[in-house]
Fold these 2 entries.
Entry 1:
Amino acid sequence: MSKTMNLVFEVGCEDLPARFVNPALSSLAESIKTGLADQRIDVKKISTYATPRRLAIIADISESQSDLSEERTGPPAKFAMKDGEPQKAAIGFAKGQGVDPKDIYIVTTKKGDYVAVKVEEKGAPSADVLPAILESALGDLKFPKSMRWGSLRTSFGRPLRWMVAVLDGKTLPVHFANVDSGNQTFGHRFSAPNAITITDGDQYQNALAKADVVVDFDERKSTIRTLVDGIADSKNGKIVDDIDLLNEVSNLVEKPHAVLVEYAESYLELPDEVLISSMRKHQRYFAIQRSDGTLTNACAVVYNTPVKDPTVVAAGNLRVLKARLDDARFFWDQDLKHGGFGAFDERLKKVVWIRGLGSMFDRAQRIANLAESIANRLELKDASETAHKAGALCKSDLTSQMVVEFTDLQGVIGAAYATKFGESDAVALAIAEQYLPKGSNDSTPTSDAGSCVAIAEKMDAIFGCFAMGIEPKATADPYGLRRSTIGVIRILQDRGYQISIRELISMTRDNAKDITPTNDGYEDKIFQFFRARLKAQLGSNYDGDIIEAVLAVGMDDILSVSDRVDALSKFRSDPNFEPLTAGFKRVVNILRKQAKEYADEKPNVEVSQLVEENEKELYEASETAEKALAAALENRSWTGACEALSALRSPVDAFFDNIMVMVDDPDLKKNRLAILFKLEALFLQVADLSIVD
Amino acid sequence: MTVKNFQDIFLTLQRFWADHGCVIQQPWDVEKGAGTYNAATFLRALGPEPWNVAYVEPCRRPTDGRYGENPNRLGAYYQFQVLLKPSPDNVLELYFESLRELGIDPMAHDLRLVEDDWEQPTLGAWGLGWEVWIDGMEATQFTYFQQVGGVELDPISAEITYGLERIATYLQNQDSIFDLKWSDDISYRQIRHQEEVEFSTFNFEEADTEKHFRWFEEYKDQAEELMKKELVFPAYDFIMKAGHAFNVLDARSAISVTERQKYIRVIRGLSCQVAEAYLKKRQTLDFPMLQENERERYAKYFATEESS
C-alpha cells in the first residue's frame, strides 16, 4: 500500500431532525467507502461522527489510486476478427476502452475465442479523485424527508451551510448546493460560534470538544445517562426506562447538560401515563419513579447550551410543563364532571366508524357481546361478566376531551375513568388491555377478561372491514388489520386458548347481526389472511416448507401449530427425516392414483391376509406408531409424535424395497393399499411431509 | 429599546425586520386561523418574485377558546409573521439576532431547534423546519415552505412565525397570558378578556349553524365565480371566509368526523385553484417584481401553456 493520507470531511447543516442523524451518517460513510473502493483508493482506517449540526468522516486513505491493469474482453473473435485482422467491431471495442487496435489479442474461454485488450492506467493522486467521490456521496444521501431551500435545486435533510474537506492539511475543493468546502468548522451555535481551523483528523474531536460539541453519539448518550441517573438519584428515584427517548435526546443536543425540574405534587392525581406523555412526547423530559414504580413529581431535563444559570432553564421548562399539565387537568376535570360514561356514549353514537359498520357505540355493543361469548365458549366463567361490561365501555373514552388531546392514551384513559366512575378494577384493567398487543414487542393482556375484550375488539374490526370489502393492500392497511390479526393469534398462543380461527370468525359473524356484508367470500378471505399472518409470524424462525407442511393439515388447533413446526424443524436434522420424507412421498404418490376408487371409503387392513414378512412388519410398526402417536398427542408432545413417526423409517424402507403394491391380485393389492392409507393418516396428524422440499 | 411589555415585542420585531429589508405589511382584514393565510404569505410565496415581508397577524381559532378561563389557551391571539423569499443563507442567524433584540440572551437560555414538519391541509401547503424552543417553550414556528396551494415552490421561502403571547409570558415571567402588560398601563386582560368570553360563547353556543352552513356554500360559490373572472385577491378573501365559517361550525360540533374531511377537501380544492389563478395572473402581468437578471433562472414560469 502506498503512503497514507488523512482525510477530514465534515458537512455542516442547520439542525437535522434527531431521527435523521445516525442513518444519514452511516449511509454517507457507506457511500464514501464504496466510492473509494470503486476508484481504487485503499482505506486504512475510518471513523464517523455526527451531531444534529454535522456529519463527519475521518479516514486514512492511500495517497493515490492503485494502478489499473486489467484484461477486458470484447466481442467473439469469429465475428470481430478476420484473417487475424481486427474488424469493425473489434476496432470499435478497442477504441471504446482507450486502447490502440493494434494491441488487440485473442483470449480463449469456455464459450470460445474472444477479442481482448489490456487496459493499463496509472493511478491518479487521491486528491484529484476525492472531490467527485465526496460530491456524489452527498448527492446520493437519502433522508426520510428531503427539502429544498433558497433558490437552489439541491435537496438535503436540512440546508447545508458549510463543508470541511481537508486532505493531509490541504483543503480539497468540494462543491455542493451553494457551498464551497474549506478548512473551517464551527463549534456550539451560541457558546463557540467562531471558526475553527481543522488541519487533521486527530485534532478534530478535541478541537470541537473545546468548542462545546461532543461529536460522538455514544459519548453523548452515555453522558446523558450519567447525568439523568444522577438527578434521579438525588431524588432517591430512578429514571423511567426509555431507550427511544435516550437515543432521540442524544441527537437533539451537541453537548448535553441536565437539570432537575420538580412540579407540584397535586398533579400526581393524573394517571401516570398522562404525566409521562406530557413530559416525554412534547418535552422530551425523563420521568423519575420511586423504587415501587410510582411516579415522583420530578423529571430530568436535558439541554444543549452551557447556560450561565441552569435554574433559569429549569424555571422556564417548569412553566411549560405546568401549562401542559394544567391543560391535562382541565380535560380530566371536565371529563370527570360527567360522573359516568353516559355523556360519552351519547357522543359515541354520533361517531361514525366505517360506513356500513354503524357508530362507535354500535361497535362497542358488538365487542361486549362477542367478548362475553368468547369467555363463555372458553369456559372462563369468572371473566364473562367483566368482559361484557368492559367491552360495552371500551370505546367510551374516545369522545373524552383527554383522549382527543392524548390520542395515544386511548384505553388507558378509559380505564382511569372507569375506576373513577366506580367500575371494578377488573373492568378497568380489561378496558386498558383492549388494544394489546400494540406491536410485535408489546405484551399481550394479563387477564382473561382483558384477553376476551382484546380478541373481540380485533375480530370485530377484521370481520367488519373484510365484510365491507376493505381488505389490506400490500402498502395500505389503514385500519391496522395485520397488527390486529397477529394480535389475536398471539393472545390465543400466550393464553393457551383452544379455539379455532374458523370458529372465531363464525362467532364474530353471528354476533354482528347489524352488519350487512357487501363482499363475497369474506369468511374464507379472513381465514386466508390469518393463515398468511401465522405463516409470516413463524417464518422469521423456521423454514417455509416445514410451516407449509404443518399448515397443510390444518390450523384449527392454532396452539399446536408453532409446537408442531418447532418439533418438525428439530426432527429435520434427524438422520431418519430425509428417508422418511421420501417414503411418505412414495406413499402419497401411490395413493393419489387410487384416490378416485377409494374416495368414499378407505380399505381396512385384513391382518390374516398379510403375506410377506415386510408387509407384516410395516403393519405392526404402524400399529405401534399409532399407539405411540396417540400417547404423545394426549400429552401434546409433538416431539414425541415425531419420534413415533421416526420409528417407521426402516419398515417403510424395507416395504418399498421388497414389496410390490400394485400387484394383479386385487385383494392383495387392496390390503397393501390399506396399509398405506393407514400410514398416511398417521402422518397427517402431524404434517403433510410430501410438501417438504 | 428595552422590551418591557407586549406591544414592545411587535414594535421591536417590526423595526428589526424592516432594518433587514422587509416590507412591513399589516394584517389581512378577513378572519383567519394563522398568519400564513394572509395573502402576503400564501399568495406571495408562489412564483419567482422575491418578497420579504413582516407583519402582525391576529389569528382566530374558535375551537381553542376557553371563555377566558385558561391561562394559556385563547380563541384569538397574535402572531408575528416574517416571510423571506428566497430564504437567505443566514436566515437562522437573523432569527436568533431578533431574539437578542427582544432581550433573550442565547447564553442565558436553552434555545433549540426541534423537528417539526408543518402542514396545512386546507391550504394544500407543507414545509419542513422546526419549533424553536426557549427553555422548552415553543416560541416560534420556523418553516421552509416546499409547497403552497398544491404548487411546488421555487424559490423556497422561509416562514418565521413568532408566538407573541408565549414570548411575552416568558419575558414578563407570567403564568397567565391575561396578566401580561400590553402597554405600561394596560393589561392584556383589560383589552382582550371580554372578547374571549363573548367569542367563546358565540363559537361554542350561539353561532347559528344553519346560517353558517349556508354562508359556507355562498362564500364558496362566490369564490368560484370570482376565480372564473380571474379576480384572484377577492376570490381568496371568500376562500378565507368559507374557511372561517367552517371553523365556527367545527367549534359548534356541527360537523361529523367524516364530513369534516369533506369540508377540508373542499377548502383545499379552492386554495389550490386560487394558487394557480394567482400564478397565471402574475404571469400575464410579467411577474413585475422579478429582477431582469433572474428571468432566465425562472424561465419555466414564463412558459405558456401550449409550450409547456
Note: Chain A touches chain B through 48 residues (CB under 8 Å).
Entry 2:
Amino acid sequence: MSAPEPAIRKTLADANLQLAIYNNTGRFKENRRKAVAPEKLPEYQKLRSQAAAVKRHTLDFLDVYLMQLEAAVTANGGKIVWASTGQEAADFILNLAKERGHNLIVKSKSMTSEEIHLNERLIEHELEAVETDLGEYILQLAGQRPFHIVAPAIHLTRDDVADLFTEKLGIERDTVIENQAMTARRVLREKFMAAGIGITGANFLIADSGAVVIVENEGNARLTHSAPKIHIAIAGIEKLIPRMRDLGVFLDLLGRSASGQPLTSYTSIVSGPRREGELDGPEEFYVVLLDSGRTKVLADSQKRESLQCIRCGACLNTCPVYRKIGGHNYPWVYSGPIGKIITPQFQGREKDPWLPFASSLCGACAEVCPVKIDIPGILLQLRREHSESPQGSEERTMFRRWAWLMRRPRIYSFAAKIGLGFLGRKPNSWLKRVPWPANRGPLVAWLAERDFPAPPPKSFRDLWKERRR
Amino acid sequence: MDPRDILFGRVREALGRKIGQKPLPPPEPLLRIRSEPAASKLEIFRNALESLSGTVTVAPEVAGVREAVEKLLNGRTAIASNNPFLAKCGIPDISGVTSGIRDSAELRNACVTAGVGITGAYCLLADTGTIVLRATPEEPRLISLLPPVHIAVVHQDRLLTNLDEMLSMIPRPVNASSAMVFITGPSRTGDIEQFLVRGVHGPGAVHAVIVSGKNPPE
C-alpha cells in the first residue's frame, strides 16, 4: 500500500484542523521544553541515560523480570493472565464478565487496548464498555480512533463536542467547555458506580513489587480501579521496570515529556485486590500481559530499543511530519515517529512499506525521546530491510544500474549529455516539470513538491577539464 | 500448551536465553536524595501545590486544625476517614462531618453525597506538591476521590522532599497497602481544545492542612 495521499491532502487543506494540530502540539512542545530546561531540571540528561539503560536492561532479560512480576503479583493476591494475541486478551475479559454476570465495563485510557480493538470485541458480545477519559469518551461517541497517543481528541473543537453531545446524549447544545466536561462527569459518574469491571492500562509494571503504575490527570483511572468489583490492568510485556526504586526517574521524565507537568495529577500504584478489613477497592485483580507482536520486536537486538517507549508523545509533538498530517493518516493507532517505527515491526513491513520513508530524518524525535530511542536510525534500518526485500526489487535494480553507469565514465558522460539535452540548459532557472521520457514514476512525485535547479551550461566534468589545462 | 509457557518460550527464544539462565545485574538505581530544612521544604511544598491551584494551611498545633478545617468546609457537609490522626485533631466532632463508617455500601453512599472528603495522608512530597495516600481499612480510596473537594490533614513530620526519599525509607510500599495514590493538585483535563477544566472526575479543589509543632503520641 502506498501513502494515503488524498486523505493527507485533505488534512493539509483543512485550515481549522491545521491550526488545531499546530497549536496543540506546539503548546505541548513548548511546555516540555520549559520543563526539562537546565534551570528547571539540571539532571535531565542523566535521567534520560538512566531510563534508557534500565529499560534496555529489562528488555534484555525480560524473561527474568516477567517471572519476578508474576511471583509478586500472585503473592499480593492478584492473578497474571498471559495473552499471545489481542483475541486471547479479549476472550479472557469476555469469559470473566460472563462468569461474574457483569455487563457494564468502565475503561480508562489505554493505547494497548486500542491496539487490540478491545472495545469493539466487547461490544460485539453485547457488553457495554465505556471509555471514561474525557477525550476517549468523546472519540467513542464519535466512533473515531485517537488522533494523538496522549491527547486523543486534539483535532476536535468545542463545537464538534457540542454537536456530538446533543446527538448522542440528547442534551441541549452547549459550547462552554466547562459545561461539557461536567456533562461527561455526570454521565460517567453513574457508569462508574454501576460498573462491575474496570479496565485500565499500565504505564509501568514493577517487577520486584508486583505493582501496576497508572498515570493520569482526570481521576477516571482512579475511579476505574477503585469503584468496580473487578480491576483488570492490560499491558504489553515491555512495560516492565525492575524495581520500585526505578520509578522516580521514569515519573520525572514521563509527565514532563508528555505535557510539561513535573507529575501528573494522579499516579496510582496498584498491587492487588482490597485487603482484609478494607471498605472499598476491587475484590479481584488481574494483570493481562500481552505479546501481540512484541516478541517479534524483541528478537531483533538492533531494533529491540523500539520497545523502550513509555508513550509520552513528545516525538509526535515535535515531528514536522506529524504536525502537518496529524494522527489519522498513519495506518495504525500509534501515530507519529514512534508509530512509524513500531507499526512495521508489529504488523509486518509489507503492509505499509511507505511508512519508514515518510520522514525527513531530521532527528527531532530522537532528541526529545526520554528513553533515547534512536528513531531515525531505526527508520534507516527499516528502509534498508525494505530495499533488501522482494518489495524493494525496483529500487535495487535502479541502484544497480546507477552503479554500473557510475563506474563507466565515458558512458556516464555520454548519457549525461543526452539527458541534459532533454532538460535543456538554462542558467539560474528551475525545473518545474519532468520532460519526456522520464515524466512518470518516482521522479514526477518527487518534483511535485520540489523545484530542481536546471543544469548549468557546463557540467562539473567540463569545468574540471578546462581548468586543468 | 499453557499460554504462559508459550509466551515465556517466545520471550526466551527472542532473547536467545535458556530457562534459569542468570541475568546481568541491573543498573544501580538513581536515587536523588537531598536534605532540606523543614521550613524550606514547607515553602517548596506550598509553592508547588499553590501553583496547581491547591491551598496549604499550616495549623500551629493539633488544636488549631479544627478551626482550619471548619474554615475550609465553609458550612459544607463532609465525610472523614477513620484515620486516628483525624480523630486526634477533632475532625469527627465538627458539625456536618460524617465519620466512623464501617460498612462498604454506606461508605459509597456517603462519598457520593458529601460535599467534601477529609483524609489523612501517608506523607507529602514537597518538590511536586504531592499528597501520598495509602488505601487501608481506616483510609478508603473513595473519600479522596468522589466528593468534589478533598482536604488532607497531615503532620509536618511527614513532609518529605521527593519520591526517592520516600522509597529510601520504605523500599516496598506495596507491603503495607494494595493501592497507593500520589495526588498532585486537583483533577484536571485539557482534552477539549487544551482548555483547562478542574474537577472533571476527581475533586476540583485540593487543600492540605499541615500540622506543625509537636506530634503528640497516638
Note: Residues 411-468 of chain A form one domain.
